C-alpha cells in the first residue's frame, strides 16, 4: 500500500461489504459498535502507551493551544470512555474505523488504515474471555471470506510466572519482565546481571546491605539530608528511601546465578509449533525444578480452543518471545497471519491488557482482552487466495 | 557567481571559532556589509559564498540541500536527521564547540546513578503516580533513540524551548536531556548526569549536504577548499625532521616508517645531504630514539611547515565517494 492511499469507489464497496461481514460476526456474539472521534486529546495516548507509540502518533496543536492527536488506535479511547462513563461490566464493544500512524523509517507504508476490532472488558473468567476473543476473530475472518490463515500465540504471563518462580531480587524481577520482548537488549541485561553490577550507587548499596535495617535506614536518611535543597523531581523522600532499602536488601545477592540466566535464555529460545513448544517448556521447567503448571495449562486450553474452532495444530505456532511492543499487553497475545501477493502478512493482532483500564483511571483492576483486524490486508489476502 | 555555498554560525563563540579556523588556513572571512551582514566572502576562494545562519538553521539547510557545506554542532545535525546516511556527510570534526548531550536527573534522587536505575524508576513512577515520568529536552530525536537503545519506554518527552535545566525545579519535568560543557549549570540547578547518560560527545563539524546541487564547479571549488584545510591540518599535526642518514639510509627509513609513521618528503642529491622526513608531532621522540637505537649519530633538527600539500586529498575523496557519480 502507498503512504497516502486513495480508495476508488469499487474498492470502497468491496471493503464496506467485507467490514459488514466482520461486524456481523462481532454482533452475533453480542458486541455493540461504538466510535470515538478521530481527533483525540493527546494526553491519554502519550501518557499510557509509551514513547514507541508516541513516535508513531500524529500530534497537533489546535488554535487554542490544546495538544491533540489523530487516534493511533481505538482501544485506548474505547477503554477511556468505558472508565469515564462507568460502563456496566462485562462490556462487549466493537468498532471499525481508520487509525493513523506515522511510519518514521518506512515512508512507503500507509499512514492511515482501517481496523475492525472488538474489546471484551471486565469478564472475570479469563480463560472464557480468551476463548471468546479467539473464536470471534476466527469467525470474523471466515465471515469476511478468508479460508487459509495461521495463528501465532504467546503469553507475557508465562515469562512473568517463570521469573516469579526464580530466586532473584525483586527489582531484577521487574526489569526482566519489562524487557523480555526486546531482542538483544534483554540478552545484554541478563549478561549485566550475571556479571554483577558495578555503579557507584550499587557499591554503596553493597556496603549498606551489611548494616542492620535501622542502621541502613539512618544512613540513607543522612544522605537525603545532604541533597535536601535539590529539586525533588516529583518523587517523595519515602519513595527514594524505600527503593534504596529494597536495593540494599538485594545487594547481598548482586549477581544473578548463571544457571538461572541459562534457564531464562533457553525458555526464551523456545519457538515452533505450539504442541512441540509446550512439550519443550514442560521438559525445561521440570529439569530446573520450576513449577509453571497454571500458565502451561492455560496455554493448553487455548490450543484446545483453537482446535475446536477448526484450526489445524500445524497452523498454530508459539514463540516464548512473542509479546507485543504495544506496551499495554499483559498476558495472552495472538496474531493471525496469511499471505498477500508480497508474502506473509499479519491480518489481526490482539491480546490481554489487564492493567490499561486502571491506568486510565478505573478504581480497581479490570480484566480486558481485545483484537484488531487490518481489513485492507484481509482483502489483499483474500485476493491472493483468489476469493475476490 | 559563486559555485559553492558554505554556511557558518552567525554569532557567538562558534562564529569566532570558525573565523579563527579559516584564518589559520589563510582564508579570511569578510562580512559583506559591516558586522551585521548575513553574507561573507572567504579570501582566496572567490567562488565560495559564505552564509551566516543560526547553528540550528545550518543543520536544516544542509538537510534540505540549500547549502553545500556547513559548520555546526554535531548535536544539531544528529537531532535534525536521526539517520545522517545519504543525507549529510561529516567531513571532519573541527576541535572546537565541544559539548555533551547528557541525561540528567535531580541530585535528590540519590538512588539513581545509571540509565538502568532510571529505567527502574520510570517503571515504578508510572505505577505509583499513574502517569509517565517526564523528560524535558529540545533533543527529542536523540532522546527517543537513546532511550530506545537502552530499553527505557515508560517515560514521556516534554519539548523544551529553552532553559531546560530549570524544568525539574519548575515542576514541568522530572528529568532532562540537555547539552553541557562543564556540568556547572546542571549542578547549579540541583541536577546530576548519569554515569552512562552521555548520549553524544559533540563538537563542531564541517559537514556536506549530499542532497545539494553538486555540479562540476561546486565539486572543484570544494576540492580546492578541502585540499587547503587538509594541508593546514596536516602541517599542524606534523613536524619535518631533517637528518643525515649515512650508509644505512633505507634500513633507517623503514624503521622510522614502522615505529613513527614517518614519510619521506625529500632525499638528498649527494651522500652527505639531509633527508626531510614528515613525522606526526606525537611521534617525534619515538623517531629520534629509533634513529639513535639504529646507530645514527648525526644531528637532527626539526622544522614546522605552514602547509603539507599532497597529491592525495582524503577529505574530498571521502566526500566524493558519497556524491552521485
Short description:
Chain A is an alpha+beta fold and 388 residues long. Helix content of chain A is 49%, strand content 18%. Chain A folds into 2 domains: 9-155 and 316-385, Bira Bifunctional Protein, Domain 2 (BirA Bifunctional Protein, domain 2), CATH 3.30.930.10; 197-254.
CATH superfamily of the largest domain in chain A: Bira Bifunctional Protein, Domain 2
* Form type of chain B: globular
Spatially, the strands of the biggest sheet of chain A line up as 1-5-6-12-11-10-7-9-8
For this structure, the CATH topology of the largest domain in chain A is BirA Bifunctional Protein, domain 2
What class would the helix/strand composition of chain A place it in?
alpha+beta
Taking the alpha carbons of the first and last residues of chain B, their distance comes to 24 Å
Write structural notes for this entry:
The complex is a heterodimer of chains A (388) and B (325). With 388 residues, chain A is α+β, with helices and mostly antiparallel strands. Chain A folds into 2 domains: 9-155 and 316-385, Bira Bifunctional Protein, Domain 2 (BirA Bifunctional Protein, domain 2), CATH 3.30.930; 197-254. Chain A is 49% helix and 18% strand. Chain A is built from 16 helices and 12 strands. Chain A has helices spanning 9-28, 42-48, 50-55, 75-84, 126-144, 156-165, 170-179, 185-195, 200-209, 213-226, 237-251, 258-269, 274-288, 293-308, 356-359, 375-385; strands at 32-33, 39-41, 59-61, 67-70, 91-100, 112-121, 150-155, 271-273, 316-319, 332-340, 343-352, 368-374. A 9-stranded mixed beta sheet of chain A has the order 1-5-6-12-11-10-7-9-8, sandwiched between helices. In chain A, strand 10 (332-340) and strand 11 (343-352) form a beta hairpin. The relative contact order of chain A is 0.16. The model of chain A has no long low-confidence stretch (mean pLDDT 87). Chain B has 325 residues and is α+β, with helices and mostly antiparallel strands. Chain B has 3 domains: 4-97 and 203-213, D-Maltodextrin-Binding Protein, domain 2 (3-Layer(aba) Sandwich), CATH 3.40.190; 99-200, D-Maltodextrin-Binding Protein, domain 2 (3-Layer(aba) Sandwich), CATH 3.40.190.10; 237-303, Metallocarboxypeptidase-like (Alpha-Beta Plaits), CATH 3.30.70. Helices cover 36% and strands 28% of the residues of chain B. Chain B has 11 helices and 16 strands. Chain B has helices at 12-24, 55-64, 74-80, 115-129, 140-150, 167-170, 184-188, 216-236, 249-260, 284-293, 314-322, and strands spanning 4-9, 29-31, 39-42, 48-53, 69-73, 88-93, 99-106, 133-137, 155-159, 175-180, 191-202, 204-209, 238-243, 263-266, 275-280, 300-303. In chain B, the strands form 3 sheets. Chain B has a 7-stranded mixed beta sheet with strand order 2-3-4-1-5-12-6, with helices on both faces. The longest helix of chain B is centred in the last third of the chain and has 21 residues, at 216-236.
Amino acid at each position: 500500500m502507498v503512504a497516502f492511499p486513495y480508495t476508488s469507489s469499487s474498492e470502497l464497496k468491496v471493503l464496506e461489504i467485507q467490514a459488514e461481514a466482520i461486524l456481523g460476526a462481532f454482533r452475533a456474539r453480542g458486541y455493540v459498535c461504538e466510535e470515538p472521534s478521530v481527533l483525540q486529546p493527546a494526553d491519554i495516548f502519550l501518557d499510557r502507551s509509551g514513547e514507541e507509540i508516541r513516535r508513531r502518533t500524529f500530534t497537533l496543536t489546535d488554535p487554542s493551544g490544546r495538544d491533540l492527536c489523530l487516534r493511533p488506535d481505538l482501544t485506548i479511547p474505547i477503554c477511556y470512555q468505558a472508565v469515564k462513563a462507568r460502563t456496566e461490566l462485562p462490556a462487549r464493544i466493537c468498532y471499525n474505523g481508520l487509525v493513523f500512524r506515522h511510519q518514521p523509517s518506512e515512508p512507503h507504508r500507509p499512514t492511515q488504515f482501517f481496523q475492525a476490532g472488538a474489546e471484551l472488558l471486565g469478564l472475570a473468567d479469563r480463560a472464557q474471555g480468551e476463548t471468546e476473543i479467539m473464536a470471534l476473530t476466527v469467525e470474523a475472518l471466515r465471515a469476511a471470506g478468508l479460508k487459509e490463515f495461521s495463528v501465532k500465540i504467546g503469553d507475557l504471563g508465562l515469562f512473568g510466572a517463570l521469573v516469579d518462580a526464580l530466586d532473584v531480587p525483586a527489582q531484577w524481577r521487574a526489569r526482566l519482565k519489562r524487557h523480555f520482548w526486546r531482542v538483544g537488549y534483554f540478552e545484554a541485561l541478563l549478561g549485566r546481571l550475571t556479571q554483577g553490577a558495578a555503579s557507584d550507587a550499587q557499591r554503596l548499596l553493597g556496603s549498606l546491605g551489611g548494616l542492620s535495617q535501622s542502621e541502613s535506614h539512618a544512613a540513607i536518611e543522612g544522605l537525603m539530608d545532604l541533597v535536601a535543597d535539590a529539586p525533588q523531581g516529583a518523587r517523595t523522600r519515602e519513595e527514594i528511601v524505600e527503593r534504596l532499602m529494597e536495593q540494599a536488601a538485594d545487594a547481598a545477592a548482586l549477581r544473578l546465578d548463571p544457571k538461572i540466566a541459562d534457564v531464562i535464555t533457553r525458555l526464551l529460545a523456545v519457538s515452533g509449533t505450539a504442541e512441540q513448544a509446550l512439550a519443550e517448556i514442560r521438559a525445561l521447567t521440570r529439569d530446573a525444578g520450576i513449577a509453571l503448571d497454571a500458565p502451561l495449562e492455560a496455554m493448553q486450553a487455548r490450543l484446545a480452543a483453537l482446535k475446536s474452532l477448526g484450526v489445524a495444530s500445524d497452523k498454530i505456532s508459539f514463540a516464548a518471545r512473542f509479546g507485543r511492543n504495544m506496551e499495554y499487553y499483559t498476558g495472552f497475545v495472538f496474531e493471525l497471519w496469511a499471505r498477500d501477493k508480497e508474502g506473509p502478512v499479519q491480518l489481526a493482532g490482539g491480546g490481554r491488557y489487564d492493567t490499561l483500564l486502571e491506568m486510565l483511571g478505573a478504581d480497581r483492576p479490570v480484566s480486558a482482552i481485545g483484537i484488531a483486524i487490518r481489513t485492507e490486508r484481509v482483502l489483499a489476502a483474500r485476493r491472493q487466495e483468489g476469493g475476490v | 557567481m559563486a559555485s559553492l555555498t558554505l554556511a557558518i554560525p552567525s554569532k557567538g563563540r562558534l562564529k569566532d571559532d570558525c573565523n579563527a579556523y579559516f584564518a589559520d588556513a589563510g582564508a579570511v572571512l569578510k562580512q559583506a556589509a559591516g558586522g551585521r551582514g548575513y553574507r561573507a566572502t572567504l579570501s582566496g576562494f572567490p567562488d565560495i559564498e559564505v552564509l551566516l545562519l543560526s547553528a540550528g538553521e545550518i543543520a536544516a539547510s544542509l538537510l534540505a540541500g540549500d547549502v553545500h557545506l556547513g559548520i555546526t554542532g554535531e548535536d544539531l545535525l544528529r537531532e535534525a536527521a536521526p539517520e545522517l546516511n545519504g543525507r549529510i556527510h561529516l567531513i571532519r570534526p573541527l576541535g572546537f564547540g565541544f559539548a555533551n548531550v547528557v541525561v540528567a536527573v535531580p541530585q535528590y534522587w540519590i538512588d539513581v546513578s545509571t540509565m538502568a536505575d532510571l529505567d527502574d524508576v520510570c517503571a515504578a513512577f508510572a505505577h505509583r503516580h499513574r502517569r509517565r515520568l517526564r523528560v524535558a529536552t529540545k533533543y527529542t530525536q536523540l532522546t527517543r533513540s537513546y532511550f530506545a537503545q537502552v530499553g527505557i519506554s515508560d517515560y514521556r518527552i516534554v519539548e523544551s524551548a529553552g532553559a531546560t535545566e530549570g524544568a525539574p525545579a519548575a515542576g514541568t519535568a522530572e528529568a532532562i536531556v540537555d547539552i553541557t560543557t562543564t556540568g556547572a549549570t546542571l549542578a547549579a540547578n540541583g541536577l546530576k548526569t548519569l554515569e552512562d547518560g552521555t548520549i553524544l560527545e559533540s563538537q563542531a563539524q564541517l559537514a556536506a549536504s549530499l542532497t545539494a546541487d553538486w555540479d562540476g564547479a561546486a565539486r572543484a571549488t570544494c576540492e580546492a577548499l578541502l585540499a587547503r584545510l587538509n594541508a593546514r591540518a596536516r602541517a599542524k599535526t606534523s613536524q619535518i625532521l631533517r637528518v643525515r642518514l649515512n650508509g644505512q639510509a633505507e634500513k633507517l627509513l623503514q624503521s622510522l616508517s614502522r615505529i613513527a609513521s614517518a614519510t619521506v618528503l625529500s632525499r638528498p642529491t649527494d651522500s652527505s645531504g639531509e633527508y626531510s622526513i614528515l613525522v606526526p608531532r606525537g611521534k617525534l621522540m619515538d623517531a629520534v630514539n629509533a634513529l639513535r637505537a639504529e646507530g645514527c649519530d648525526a644531528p637532527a633538527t626539526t622544522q614546522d611547515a605552514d602547509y603539507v600539500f599532497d597529491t592525495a586529498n582524503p577529505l574530498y575523496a571521502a566526500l566524493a565517494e558519497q556524491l552521485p557519480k
